[in-house]
Amino acid sequence: MQKNTINGFSYYSVDPMNQNESNKVILIYHGWGGSALGYRDLAAELAGEGFHVIIPEIVHHDTRQPLANHFDQETVQTYFWETIMATIDEFPDFMATLGMTKENVILLGSSMGGCIANGIFAREPMAGGLININGSGSFVLSEKLFRERDQREQTPDELKNRLMKYDPVARESGFSPVLLMHGDSDDIMPIDGQRDYARYVRANSRNVDFRVYKGVNHQITQDMIGDLVRWVDRLSK
Questions:
Q1: 24 near 107, Cβ under 8 Å?
Q2: Are 146 and 174 in contact (CB under 8 A)?
Q3: Share of the chain above pLDDT 70, in %
Q4: How many angstroms separate the CA atoms of 45 and 191, rounded?
Q5: I need a labelling partner for 176 at 20 to 30 A (CA). Which of 2, 122, 205, 237 fits?
Q6: pTM, full prediction
Q7: DSSP state of 64
Q8: Which residues partner with 110 through β-bridges?
Q9: pLDDT recorded at residue 173
């Protein structure tokens, strides 16, 4: 896995031994408090299927102005959505820096990264596909659920209005393939955000593969990885 830094963006890339016929690139976004390097094994497996894989460093993580303690409650509440929105906003510049066309990119993310991937996909209807693992495609609803779980006040109007500008369920979805994966016992990122996005996509006559994993909390299991690899392998045909 090779690290690159260009125009202020740092990212890791893995080239396939044999590029498959789809010529697609898989872009992986990691979760809150995680690291781009944490996905090197998944990247290697996907490269083995013939995909070029890119893992960008996300703002406030790795070398991009990292936070002192990602899991401090006040830090999460201050920076979680800000990080998601900033990463969605910078996607066009990142693609321009890489010299890639959006149609060739499959967006994959886990947890916070799933929210990022879903948010980008909602803005880029020509993107090649979406894989959201344990994330959410319904931002306003997810923030409401976070606050109910943590026994906080209702979402302030200012934050709600900002989230609505990025919320995938507030935008028309494209026709590219979608895979949503979530554990039904997730106590970090409630599955209802995935369910709401799946409902929205289906109501708008779009196809989505929504897979729920019984008894699974906020983690990526071997069953999930197996299903993911088989799903992307079909795209390469």
A1: no
A2: no
A3: 99
A4: 26
A5: 2
A6: 0.97
A7: B
A8: 133
A9: 75
